[in-house]
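Hi R.,

Here's the chain you asked about this morning:
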Amino acid sequence: MLLLVLVGAGVLGTAQAARAAQAGPDVNYLIAVHESDLAIVAAGKAAKTDGRSSCVRKVGARLESDHRRLAEQSRVVAEQLGLSLPTSPSAEQRRSLNAVAAKAGTSGYDAAWLAWQRREHRHVLSLINSELAAGSQPEIKSLAAGARPVIRMHQSMIGSTCQIGTESPSVPTGDGGQLADAERRRTQAALVFVGLGLVLLASKHTSARWRAIGVAGLVLGAALLSGGQPGDAGDVPEGGLSAPEREAAVPPIRLALPGLVDAPVVPVAANREGALDVPKSPTTVGWWAAGAAPGSAGGTVLLAGHVDSARSGRGVFAALWGVPLGARVTVTAGDGTVYRYRIVARRIYRQDALPANLFRAAAKPRLALITCIRSYDRSARRYSHNLVLYAVPTAQKPEP
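And the predicted structure, written out as tokens:
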């Protein structure tokens, strides 16, 4: 039934594509990639029932969800530009989908489905690379840049063998340990001052001058201890289920916390080790491209950045340790629109226990800024915990 619907809708989709064929490479890209997204959505939906293995069924569901979001992102931009997009895959894609569907119920279905997905994802990646090399419209190029890490993540799931992958990657954002070392030295100094103060005040033969020094030592030690790493504060904005379509908008390209952070943002996804592939540059922020984009109706806009780097010292998100609740954040999307948020909560999580809803859910829109904190393991070159700052959109309208 699904494929019959695709065939019926194909006439309209082909006609729309033909009308826009002369509109330029950016629009041609948008049409072609939208057709592929629709085809992958259809194939993913079919795999949920026809897949022989649990892996193919689960990967099918994941691809359907991710490509629904990508298709909706294209629709959002097309609407902004006054363009019409196809409503079904191309005729060739429909024929190849029919060929895979014909194997449903047989032992050959999974292999045929994976082979089809590999071909289609290679096609999509080729379209993306061409758009990034030759495209000129910033909002469309932003869509292509945001889709590329998601496609590459999918390719690792549909390789020679099926791999489910992770929906909740770890977020390693510090491999230098400089901030942990600074905090350790601060704590050691604080304990020395407190100890000195206690010794001086406990002695019955201490002069008034040395007693004053002892009081000063206690005060300074207490100040150093209170100025250390932050703890939990505020109420976390509610998580919950959100449809992929509610999370779709133009990807972000810049983040700013006035006086603290002003950095470029690039899209990232999970790598083969199940970790977020945070940008190698400690001055660049990574956006979880399989999640929500700023300005979307729901979902979490997740941005991760280094706290420090073994080669470069302090990272772009080192300042997050001192950001207070109520601080303002601005995120600029690829079409130039600026979205404003306010920090409302701070949480510390073990790096292996981040909430799953950071990556896949939030009924209402929210922003999460993530970096590393707490102790540093030099042998593993990683921090023990993640710091997450949660923010919600302000009442102000986004700036075009």
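The chain has two domains: 2-157, 168-400.

Let me know if you need anything else.
M.
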